[in-house]
Amino acid sequence: MNIKMLSLLLALLLPPLWGVSQSLEKVLEAGDEAYQSRDYFTAFKCYEVVLEYDDDKYSRPQRLLAFQYGLSAQRFNYFSKADSVFANLMVASEDNNRIDSIYARTVYYRAQLLLSKGESEADYSLAKSLFEKVETELSSKVSADPVLQERYREAAAAGIQKVEYSIQRNGWLEKDTLHRLTSNKINSGYSDLAPVMEGDTLYFSSLRFDNNPLRRKRQSTTYGMNLRAVFAPLDTGGMDTLLTVLPTAEPFNKEDQFTLHRAISPSGGWMVFSVCESVEDSIRCKLYKRQSQGPGIWGEPQLMEINQGGRYTTTQPAFGYDCATEAVVLYFVSDRPGTLGGLDIWQASFDEASGTANAITNLGEPVNSQWNESTPFYHQLSSTLYFCSDAPPGYGMYDLFKTLKTEEGWSQPDNLGAPYNSGFNDMYFFTSEEGSTVYLSSDRPRSRRFDEAIDACCQDIFTGQRKLDRELYVEVIQCDQKPRGYTDTELKVIDVSDCRQLDTLLNTATMDDIAETLPVRQYRQYRVIASNPSIGAMVDTVIDLRLAHFDTAQTASVIIDLLPDYVELAVSTGFFLEGELIEIGEVTVEDQSGNLLSAVEGQSGLYRLAFDRAYNIGVSVDSTERTIQGVLPGVVTLYPDTLEGVYFPKAQCQKVCYQEIDIPLPADQRREVRVYFHNDKPNRAGRVPGGFRGYTSVTDQSFDDAIEEYLALDDTYFENNPDRDTVQSRIRLFFERDIEEGRDALIELSKTLIEAAGELEADQHIQVEIQGLCSARGNKIYNDSLALRRIQCIQEYMEKQEWNGVRLGDLMGPNGSNAKVRIIPLPLGESKASGNVPGGDEDGKYNIAAATDRRVELNVVLPEQNAPKLSLFDLDEDCTQTNNETRKNPEQ
């Protein structure tokens, strides 16, 4: 009935003016009765009529009546009117300082309205501030009952969470892209809800039926029927909707009752449905069942034994199949004892043979909460339970959620988000068997109105399409070098979405690597099994396309390293000389506990070593130090007993499952350089306290200057030494050969250090010991100072040397630093001098023996560079063996 008709009816019921008050009281009683029976539209119209009169014409406080008027409008979704009423009531209350229960509840319900609308950032901002006000200030004003106070406080806190959720997602309004079924045969002006699609037939419930002509023009929740809509193609193109009201079989589709939401068991043998009726101040529902008598034929309804007596409701059935227990499960909604909040989702085992349900349990957390959970739908293919809840997070009122059924239980529910959810009541989610077509019912603003003059009501059925095509990329990596006895690897990909009907997509066997791209579908699960018994390797995993990640991701990838957990290693040892292995010694392999490994199949030198474990590889040789004349300068030190803690990595080159390898002995090379010069120009600033000019450890003289001055003294040395051939010849060799060779050796050493430093590994460094030596003519203090000056001179000279754009000084640092070249100064003074110069002999300073004592010795320890690493078997980046090509042992 439209507003004018109802107003006229109420006016006719009123007596003359002297009886207005009494009649208004009857209208109020009628409104209260309608509100209690959830006929909110009638209550709204009754309150509206009374509010047209002055408040002295009725006994109820006008503020309370205005609140009831706004609340009735909100309950039948006349949100614009409710918002206007609550906004005016808030202002009036604040102006008159009436901060009481009516004001507190008004603030809360207006916040709810603003949240649901979500039309602007300002709506969300105001809604949040109002919720915060209720939570922190007004919840104590709601009622004297502390339980009710806590409920409002918790509801306000939940509202704040919903506001924040909505703001983070930029609201829902612009994402409302679902298609509303436009056929008037399906979506009427009343609530049409609970859609279930079977083939080309849509079953749903509608509240459009009532035989009382006075009630046909308003919404009710106390009557409704189950309908069938068949979509049939027209000859002219398009689709026709053939609507049928399913035959009555009491209480199924009985007048003055609400037949809601049918569910069909997996075998098709049973229909379970809800029948609801208005009882006192609530709607109470019960579950009934009907057994199939053939296609489209159902037996008489039978009341189910799982209904809870008394004032409790049992409603909204849904079926699923539990693969773990191999049993049919009946899900339903109830407010019976044991709920966590208001309405909870329950489950019972269902016997297809007898149609009986038992073993009733509450799904518990995380599915159920202190709020209301209802309208369950179990999508068998994806093992997903869809339901609606007014719990946070959400956009407003009831939102749709989903939870996966796993071996561990139910997953944490996920909000489906927009466009499936809005700020209003979104419920009764249903999807086709494949999951591509979605149906749900919602009272969002695009829903059709039973009275277009009022922007209110009702649930309509919406639909949407989801693109499910995805790709599954499977790669199996196998050994390049096969261990002995290696066989084909078998790969299977199986669709295990429905445990009752498995489907094999791929079954192949080969010794080569495998790479396959398979067409798959979202919401399914695919089991990938790769196995090779010859190496004891198997990978069995499930790719779960039900996960939220695949709502957007188009490809699922699984890469399997089907490799043994060991490397089969054939070992020989020795060191390389000019490209040839000189085999030395015996090999033993033991783990870190000292347990010796036996060779494989009794073959000498063949071992199976596990990855990520440490082994000691022992090698014994007849001599540890070797000098190879004409091939390597200096002495090579072999370390046959230091191959300890060897690890074999999984990540790199595990495809090399079998390897014949030569293990060279690690070695260090020692180099010695002698530089002859003197430095007798100390810097006075570094004078030792109390000492003379020579007693200083620093100098400004460069090595080049010092050595040139030294070379200029050759005539002086000749003049001050006996004119004997042997002495004169030794002086000549000293000046013409030893000094020049020392300088050249220093330059060459600097180049070697730069090159070697560039090839060091992260944990390696070069040790350079610089020994400053003096003749025995001076005293200890003088000689120690002179030795330091000579070390400084050499070190500064080395720092300036460059090679290939690299300055040696940038690589040098003191011992203990992180430098690649670490300098150890040793001012030995006369401690290393020959001591063959007579003390106090003035002519002795030009003695050739004293000249050879004036020097610096550099002892360099070069670690083996580019040494073969046992953990990598000296493999290139492409994991090819290069033992004989790239080794740079000192023996080469």
Distance linking N and C termini: 105 Å
**Uncertain regions spanning at least 5 consecutive residues:** 1-18, 214-221, 835-842, 868-875, 881-892
The oligomeric state of the chains shown is single chain
Beta-strand percentage?
Answer: 25-35%
Gyration radius, in Å = 47 Å
Shape label: elongated
Going across the biggest sheet, name each strand in turn: 35-36-38-44-39-43-42
Record field, number of beta strands: 44
Largest sheet: 7 strands, mixed
User: What is the average of the pLDDT values?
Assistant: 82
Q: Strand pairing plus helix content: what structural class? A: alpha+beta
Work out the helix count.
Answer: 14
- Helix content class: 10-25%
Sequence-ordered SSE layout with sheet pairings:
Blueprint: H1 3-13, H2 20-36, H3 40-51, H4 62-75, H5 79-95, H6 101-117, H7 121-138, H8 146-168, E1 179-180, E2 192-198, E3 201-206, E4 225-233, E5 239-245, E6 258-264, E7 270-279, E8 282-294, E9 297-298, E10 302-303, E11 314-322, E12 327-334, E13 344-350, E14 357-362, E15 373-379, E16 384-389, E17 399-406, E18 409-410, E19 414-415, E20 426-431, E21 437-442, E22 460-465, E23 469-477, E24 489-495, E25 503-510, E26 514-521, E27 525-532, E28 537-544, E29 555-561, E30 566-577, E31 580-583, E32 587-591, E33 606-610, E34 615-619, E35 625-626, E36 635-638, E37 658-664, E38 667-676, H9 703-711, H10 714-719, H11 725-758, E39 766-773, H12 780-800, E40 802-803, E41 806-807, E42 812-814, E43 821-829, H13 848-853, E44 855-863, H14 883-886
Parallel strand pairs: 23-29, 30-37, 39-43, 42-43
Antiparallel strand pairs: 1-22, 2-3, 3-4, 4-5, 6-7, 7-8, 8-9, 8-10, 11-12, 12-13, 13-14, 15-16, 16-17, 17-18, 17-19, 20-21, 21-22, 23-26, 24-25, 24-27, 27-28, 30-31, 30-33, 32-34, 35-36, 36-38, 38-44, 39-44, 40-41
